[in-house]
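Below is our example:
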Amino acid sequence: MTTADPGIDPLLGLRAPQDPDCDVFLTGTVFLDIVFTGLDSAPVRGTESWARGMGSSPGGVANMATALARLGLHTSLAAAFGDDHYGEYCWDALEHGEGIDLSMSRTVPGWHSPVTVSMAYEGERTMVSHGHEAPAASVAPGRTFPKCPPRARAAVASLTPGRSEPWVAGAARDGAMIFADVGWDETGRWDLDALPDLGHCLAFLPNAEEAMRYTRTDCPRAAAHALAERVPLAVVTLGADGAYAVDRATGTAAEVPAIAVEALDPTGAGDVFVAGFVTGTLADWPLADRLAFAGLTAALSVQEFGGSLSAPGWAEIAAWWQQVRTYADQDPAALERYAFLEELLPATSRAWPLRRAVPTIGFRQ
């Protein structure tokens, strides 16, 4: 199995012959994302707006899969792909452009790709999506998936109130570390007991608003401590204020501020954060280093357009590390927070070794 950057393996010193081939398994819906950037303001009803930039890329669960692969993790994705040009483009971009294992995925005859149009302006985004649920049993014909996912070091799940995914329990029984995020609770109940798969999770990574609603607290840090009573590792993202985490096993709490950047498009930043945190956890880094790395990768991603297209790899991280140390007004203490990356990063920035997803459907290489 190849990855998007075979030159950097964050787990190199930890790998053993008996380990699973797959580092991270995930499943979900792949969208075709069409992103408009360079809008001065939100579109006005009854008028036509022109964007200064546009790109297309695989989106949805592909954002996180790409982020994981670009950080050197062997990534397996189980998803349904549309039987159209959009689906063909997404499959090619993920398998050949990013080195993601799609052996658990399949193209569904007669089913069209879900599509999201995203408009980025003023550091925010507005999205319009369309799609139909893929037919039942459309992934991996002849297999028992999703009950039996491939053996993996870790798996990423998206929890839904009132619903349990059988593959999560199966992956946990096989020894996978389960990392989970969650979306907005449309029921308004915000009941942790309505998330049955939470009991299988090593780590739970909600944002501040979600964490406070689920724990009935008015402080995201208090929410993280409350969540740590339910999962071994609670991580609460604080937006522009960074992230806060509590490790129940060690009693350690850590907080890392966000990196100030000029945001072009926040699409997929949360997925990139999770990918960075998963990478640091599998590499057995200290909790604060994991938070810092996750925040750094997310910050680098919002400076580019598109979800999967903007996910940084080690080349981009190395380029940032070289550049940030040249700033005359750089706070040495703040810079020291990322010194742990020195041993991992290449000595000089270099061209990406494999082609990446081309940010348009029309051109051919």
